[in-house]
């Protein structure tokens, strides 16, 4: 740093006008990440169309209706992501309390009569006019920046956050966590746990915290199961993946149909828009949680593997960004986003392949769904924001 | 970046990489390794085989008039499998369906429950995997409601199907001859391979009785199938493969609708007359046979029922009525399955046996009021003494004592109570030669054989009953003793006798046999065939109903052959003598009253009355006839169980049938010159009902 001119020089545009600087910063975007997300979005849009046009046609609706709405969601999402990218993420710290409060209010509102139940989860607020918000998606963003702020406080000498910080982080993460469990939204709860664990680990917290958390989580899970705190359908859904043929018309139906769709795709698939399982809409929720089955059937192993690889690229770039971040706060933001997307990808694809229980989580950047798309794009923006302001000589 | 953070980021790298590797591995295993397995599952998911039922052939009379045809009906069916996928097990759907059909939920639910032990009708006896028809008289508006709102009626279909229709030409029902259809059971399906289930239609029916069962293979045709593509809701999205159904052939029978109608009517009158005279008259039969060919022209049975009751689900009340003894078991054909003591109509056999045994055909015989068979006196009918007579008169006047004497003397010659090694038993042998005691082989299922109680039968019967008799011989009959000591003593004596030597063919057995009483049982069909054999000069024919199977588009697929007749071992001169005796019966004999004023010029009818005494019941009333005497064409038999005297109840009904066939001054004849059509009809007279 020969030409160090203070704090501004970290981003490399301290002596230029604000907007010029920001536009110049765009050139520093992580282009592999950007291109990958764009490709995933396009593939996702095509899969969404394939999953929906036949049914819409039969119902006399606009067969391209889902595609059009999905494209609109993507456009809004990119704008959101762009705004987040150009914001100086370090200024986020100032807004974290507000973001956090908003997330909690949203999650609370879901539990009031304002909320609606879709597929057994009380996770939505219907605004009207066909629009609905799923606050838990935005809560993931809130959680990431909140934990990054608490655990990423600049410290002197200490390698990791102290006990006070860890407890504070756990307490603040616990509030939205409990609200989500109350919906109940098992998938998002698991994402929260993955994010908390991942960020705690990378923040440098003592090993005993991590071990204690994993042990405590396992104990709590066992307690919930054995004391009958879960409803039967939740247990059924959770365990159906182990043996979908046990009840092929009930809880195992999704699991079984998902496997048939993917398995029948073979090496090269049936061709885009040619899936017969898809066209016959045998797999429920196919444009959202089970979008991967469309890829499996229509694009085959080749196409499905490419999608998994593309998601892998996103995660790899995210981890790279975490490693190169200018500060611990940036590292933790990127780590949180990676943990979130990694777990959600594994869980979503895993449940369609029958190696994970079925929970209501969309596939990042691919599935249909406004709130999820917006949240994913904001996450994408966060990664870019950290990347733009990375350490210059790494 | 501190080293711990750095290290843990590296761990995260590795972890994420591992997770992705797991996904890739699983993807490889499912799509590359197990791809064909899942492809198979997917194919099952996507296609469904629909068996297209073949239209069942009609059953026609000898002129091509349908006795059974098909009518199209809008049938509403329910698929249990789809229903069970509903959250509430389909209750809401059935509720809605009941609303549309104007019935109750319980009624619909009953119709689709599976039959089993303790389950009352209505219930479904067929496969649980077929759509079950719940209503087949749906009016099109209601059916349309169901088809238009498929989302409200998952698993419910409404479609046009052919169902059995009974037009009853000339009033001819012939219910027991035609038989009925029932949903095929799993056992039948397993037994008859190649029988496809018409899954989609919901009704794969099989003939369960009568001609429907006998000629099921010819009538049923060959179902086609359609392999359709379906979506997850079971909605058909296209057709992958198709094979058309081959409709079943039409069965042309020898039943003549006109004569059948007349026979049913005459039988009904006979029953009514019998009841008016104070006899229970609980069952009856009327049969007309072509004596030259063995073709059955009419077969009426009483009690009867409306065969259209089988179309659509049958209720428990209706089903009970059909099977129950209370309603007289109308499913049972009294013609082929009913077994009755034949009384004096049996004498055509006995007289031939006596002559064959050496009694002169033109001899003179005494007809006293009673004849001592061993120690017991056997009486003539009403104890009448008719003096000396020839065999002709013995038939005309139906003298019993003449036959008792023949039987007793033959019995004595065979060794009496200590029979010789190979007794000749001429009357028993002759009865068998006349075809009694054995099924005739008519083309109908479940025919009864009747009973010729010979020495062997007595032995078997004794083996089966001696235990009870020996016990009763010791204990007596205390119940009867209380009310009727004399009768109790008699029963005890009989039991004691039976216990010791109940297997012995006694003189009384022989005497009873000669006049068709005691343990002799015949079916009306056996009797009409025996009279046909007398009429046609000694050909014992195999009765036939089926003439030919016609292709649905006309033209003969195959003719049904007449089996070779057996030969009656009776001298033609004797048969001619019997014929002349029977000719006298209607003019100056026991049936002269019933045939008073009958136009014998139109058709010279000969016959024989029969009044069979049945222990503990009213007499069976018989009249067996043939005509015209010179060139016999038909044999007609009417029987009314517990109907009183043959001359009074049965004979007038036989007369009514002859008059219907040949006409009277007031009545147009059903048969032109007394002849049935000689050629097969070229095509059905009427097609499917609208």
TrEMBL record, chain A:
UniProt keyword Disulfide bond, yes or no: no
Main function: Peptidoglycan polymerase that is essential for cell wall elongation.
Protein name: Peptidoglycan glycosyltransferase RodA
Taxonomic lineage: Bacteria, Bacillati, Actinomycetota, Actinomycetes, Streptosporangiales
Family from the record: Belongs to the SEDS family. MrdB/RodA subfamily.
InterPro entries: Cell_cycle_FtsW-rel_CS, FtsW/RodA, RodA/MrdB
Gene Ontology CC annotation, any one: plasma membrane
Key words, A-Z: Cell membrane, Cell shape, Cell wall biogenesis/degradation, Glycosyltransferase, Membrane, Peptidoglycan synthesis, Transferase, Transmembrane, Transmembrane helix
Localization: Cell membrane; Membrane
Keyword hit for Membrane: yes
Coiled coil (UniProt feature): none
Ranges that cross the membrane: 31-51, 71-91, 98-118, 138-154, 166-182, 188-205, 210-230, 299-316, 328-346, 366-386
Topological type in the membrane: Multi-pass membrane protein
Chief subcellular location: membrane
Name of encoding gene: rodA
From TrEMBL, chain B:
SUPFAM superfamilies: beta-lactamase/transpeptidase-like, Penicillin binding protein dimerisation domain
Membrane topology: Single-pass membrane protein
Name of the top EC class for this enzyme: hydrolase
Gene Ontology cellular-component terms listed: plasma membrane
Pfam families for this protein: PBP_dimer (PF03717), Transpeptidase (PF00905)
A GO molecular-function descriptor: peptidoglycan L,D-transpeptidase activity
Ranges where the Penicillin-binding protein dimerisation domain occurs: 52-239
Domain Penicillin-binding protein transpeptidase, chain residue ranges per copy: 284-658
Source taxon at top rank: Bacteria
InterPro entries: Beta-lactam/transpept, Beta-lactam/transpept-like, PBP_dimer, PBP_dimer_sf, PCN-bd_Tpept, Penicillin-binding_protein_2
Example GO biological process: proteolysis
NCBIfam families: pbp2_mrdA
Record-stated family: Belongs to the transpeptidase family.
Name of the molecule in the record: Penicillin-binding protein 2
Organism: Actinomadura montaniterrae
């Amino acid at each position: 740093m020969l030409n160090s001119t203070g704090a501004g020089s970290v981003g490399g545009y301290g002596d230029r006008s604000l907007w010029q600087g920001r536009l110049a910063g765009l050139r520093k975007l992580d282009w592999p990440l950007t291109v990958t997300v764009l490709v995933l979005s396009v593939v996702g849009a095509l899969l969404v169309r394939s999953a929906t046009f036949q049914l819409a046609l039969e119902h006399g609706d606009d067969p391209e209706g889902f595609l059009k709405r999905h494209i609109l969601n993507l456009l809004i999402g990119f704008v959101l992501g762009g705004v987040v990218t150009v914001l100086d993420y370090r200024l986020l710290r100032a807004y974290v309390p507000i973001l956090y409060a908003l997330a909690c209010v949203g999650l609370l509102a879901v539990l009031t009569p304002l909320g609606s139940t879709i597929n057994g989860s009380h996770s939505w607020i219907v605004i009207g006019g066909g629009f609905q918000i799923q606050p838990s998606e935005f809560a993931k963003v809130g959680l990431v920046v909140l934990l990054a702020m608490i655990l990423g406080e600049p410290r002197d000498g200490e390698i990791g956050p102290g006990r006070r910080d860890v407890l504070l982080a756990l307490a603040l993460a616990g509030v939205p966590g409990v609200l989500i469990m109350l919906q109940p939204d098992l998938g998002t709860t698991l994402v929260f746990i993955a994010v908390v664990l991942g960020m705690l680990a990378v923040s440098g917290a003592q090993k005993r915290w991590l071990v204690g958390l994993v042990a405590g989580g396992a104990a709590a899970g066992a307690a919930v199961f054995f004391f009958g705190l879960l409803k039967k359908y939740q247990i059924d859904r959770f365990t159906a993946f182990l043996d979908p043929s046990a009840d092929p018309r009930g809880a195992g139906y999704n699991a079984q149909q998902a496997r048939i769709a993917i398995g029948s795709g073979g090496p090269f698939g049936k061709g885009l828009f040619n899936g017969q399982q898809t066209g016959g809409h045998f797999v429920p929720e196919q444009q959202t949680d089970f979008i991967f089955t469309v890829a499996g059937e229509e694009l085959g192993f080749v196409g499905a593997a490419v999608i998994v690889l593309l998601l892998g690229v996103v995660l790899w770039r995210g981890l790279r960004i975490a490693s190169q971040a200018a500060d611990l706060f940036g590292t933790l933001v990127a780590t949180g986003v990676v943990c979130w997307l990694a777990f959600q990808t594994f869980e979503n694809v895993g449940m369609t392949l029958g190696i994970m229980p079925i929970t209501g989580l969309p596939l990042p950047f691919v599935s249909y769904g406004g709130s999820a798309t917006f949240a994913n794009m904001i996450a994408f923006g966060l990664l870019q924001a950290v990347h733009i302001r990375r350490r210059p000589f790494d | 970046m501190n080293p711990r953070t750095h290290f843990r980021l590296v761990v995260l790298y590795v972890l994420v990489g591992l997770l992705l590797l797991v996904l890739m591995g699983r993807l490889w295993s499912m799509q590359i390794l197990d791809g064909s397995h899942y492809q198979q599952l997917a194919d099952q998911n996507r296609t469904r085989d629909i068996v297209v039922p073949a239209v069942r052939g009609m059953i026609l009379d000898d002129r091509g008039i349908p006795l059974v045809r098909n009518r199209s009906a809008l049938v509403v069916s329910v698929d249990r499998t789809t229903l069970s996928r509903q959250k509430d097990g389909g209750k809401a759907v059935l509720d809605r369906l009941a609303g549309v059909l104007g019935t109750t939920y319980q009624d619909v639910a009953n119709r689709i429950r599976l039959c089993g032990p303790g389950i009352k009708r209505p219930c479904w006896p067929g496969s649980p995997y077929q759509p079950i028809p719940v209503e087949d008289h749906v009016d099109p508006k209601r059916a349309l409601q169901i088809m238009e709102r498929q989302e409200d009626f998952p698993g419910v279909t409404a479609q046009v199907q052919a169902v059995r229709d009974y037009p009853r030409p000339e009033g001819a029902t012939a219910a027991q001859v035609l038989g009925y259809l029932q949903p095929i059971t799993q056992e039948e399906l397993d037994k008859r391979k190649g029988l496809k289930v018409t899954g989609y239609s919901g009704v794969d029916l099989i003939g369960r009785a009568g001609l429907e069962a006998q000629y099921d293979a010819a009538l049923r045709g060959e179902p086609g199938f359609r392999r359709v593509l379906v979506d997850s809701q079971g909605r058909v999205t296209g057709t992958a493969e198709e094979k058309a159904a081959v409709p079943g052939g039409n069965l042309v029978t020898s039943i003549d609708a006109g004569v059948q109608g007349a026979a049913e009517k005459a039988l009904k009158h006979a029953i009514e007359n019998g009841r008016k005279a104070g006899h229970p008259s609980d069952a009856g039969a009327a049969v007309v046979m072509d004596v030259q060919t063995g073709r059955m022209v009419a077969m009426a049975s009483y009690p009867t029922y409306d065969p259209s009751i089988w179309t659509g689900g049958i209720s428990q009340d209706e089903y009970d009525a059909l099977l129950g003894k209370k309603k007289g078991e109308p499913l049972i054909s009294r013609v082929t399955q009913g077994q009755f003591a034949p009384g004096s109509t049996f004498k055509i056999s006995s007289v031939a046996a006596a002559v064959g045994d050496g009694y002169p055909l033109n001899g003179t015989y005494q007809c006293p009021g009673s004849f001592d068979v061993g120690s017991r006196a056997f009486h003539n009918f009403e104890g009448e003494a008719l003096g000396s007579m020839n065999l002709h008169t013995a038939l005309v006047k139906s003298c019993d004592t003449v036959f008792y004497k023949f039987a007793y003397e033959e019995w004595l010659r065979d060794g009496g109570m200590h029979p010789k090694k190979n007794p000749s038993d001429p009357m028993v042998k002759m009865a068998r030669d006349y075809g009694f005691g054995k099924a005739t082989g008519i083309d109908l299922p479940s025919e009864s054989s009747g009973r010729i109680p010979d020495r062997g039968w007595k032995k078997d019967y004794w083996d089966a009953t001696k235990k009870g008799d020996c016990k009763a011989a010791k204990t007596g009959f205390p119940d009867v003793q209380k009310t009727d000591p004399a009768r109790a003593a008699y029963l005890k004596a009989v039991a004691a006798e039976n216990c010791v030597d109940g297997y012995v063919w006694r003189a009384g057995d022989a005497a009873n046999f000669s006049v068709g009483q005691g343990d002799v049982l015949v079916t009306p069909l056996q009797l009409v065939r025996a009279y046909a054999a007398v009429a046609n000069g000694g050909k014992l024919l195999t009765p036939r109903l089926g003439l030919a199977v016609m292709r649905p588009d006309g033209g003969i697929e195959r003719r049904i052959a007449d089996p070779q007749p057996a030969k009656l071992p009776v001298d033609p001169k004797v048969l001619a003598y019997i014929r002349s005796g029977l000719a006298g019966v209607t003019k100056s004999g026991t049936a002269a009253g019933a045939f008073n004023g009958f136009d014998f010029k139109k058709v010279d009818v000969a016959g024989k009355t029969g009044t069979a005494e049945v222990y503990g019941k009213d007499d069976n009333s018989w009249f067996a006839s043939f005509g015209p005497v010179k060139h016999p064409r038909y044999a007609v038999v009417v029987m009314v169980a517990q109907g009183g005297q043959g001359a009074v109840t049965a004979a007038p009904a036989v007369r009514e049938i002859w008059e219907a066939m040949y006409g009277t001054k007031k009545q147009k004849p059903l048969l032109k010159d007394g002849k049935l059509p000689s050629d097969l009809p070229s095509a059905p007279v009427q097609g499917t009902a609208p």
